[in-house]
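hey so i finally got around to running the thing on that chain from the lab meeting. sorry it took forever, my laptop kept dying and i had to restart like 3 times. anyway pasting the input first so we r on the same page abt which one it is
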Amino acid sequence: MARSVMILQDFLREALGWVASLGSGGPIGFILIYNIATVLLIPGSILTLGSGVLFGLGWGTVYVIIAATLGATIAFWIGRNFARDWVTEKISGYPKFAAIDRAVANQGFKIVLLTRLSPLFPFNLLNYAFGITQVSLKDYVMGSVGMLPGTILYVYIGSLIGNLALIGAKSANPEAEKLQWIAKIIGFIITIAVTFYITRVAKKALDESITE
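ok and heres what got predicted. didnt touch it at all, straight out
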């Protein structure tokens, strides 16, 4: 497992190196790679960090948000129109999704927004999973703004690392490593709060449907 993770990290770093070689076409190449990774369920944290290395905080954040939103929308569309059975099987191992499915019918935008705020919800799988819920495409896309805080933080960490070869290395930069731990702790706290809220909303929706 550890070896496969290292191979994936090396592959993504090489992809980022290719993006760097494109010059002015780098942003387009980055968005394309990010979209492919999102659709293929490849975690995008290294790409997000790499955006900070390549483009800096400002443009790096812009490119990640564009790429992540576009990739998420493509996955949503695939899940809704072509892969319902596959998605249903994949999410069967996530009990939390049952609550999301019930809650999203009445508060689609808010639920998408909250799950995007939490880095511990499986972002790539959730893109497909939302496709088989009742959430509208409009609410889904607008809710993607919830990715912004986490994106800014990880792009900033990437800008501190400053070297594609050091992404994923424990000693890349003491300040970057410290921020990554802070991000994990904050993400865990947010996840607990979001899960509690979604479960409460879902229970209320379920109770109302039973009494109707």
